[in-house]
Amino acid sequence: MPHSDDGAKKRRDFDDDMDNQDMQDDDYELDQEQIIQTILILGNEIWNNFGQTQQLDDVRIFFQHTFYI
Predict the structure, then answer these.
(1) Consecutive sets of 10 residues in the chain, 69 residues long: mean pLDDT of each?
(2) Which whole-number Å values give the CA distances from 66 to 37, 41, 62, in the listed order?
(3) Domains in the chain: boundaries
(4) Residue 14 class from Cβ within 10 Å (0-12 exposed, 13-18 middle, 19+ buried)?
């Protein structure tokens, strides 16, 4: 199945940011914007694995029942 190099890069960048933050602060918590960005990054990776090329930019789609079907 095809995958998105852009999505993989965003995931690596996010992982690197998290690793760097973990070194600075063990009690780190994600704020709302970081949670939304994480959902979008991971959701778009899944979406791309289903062969979809369009990037989703609205996190609400991942919480609709039609997305799960």
Answers:
(1) 62 68 60 90 90 89 72
(2) 21, 19, 9
(3) 5-68
(4) middle
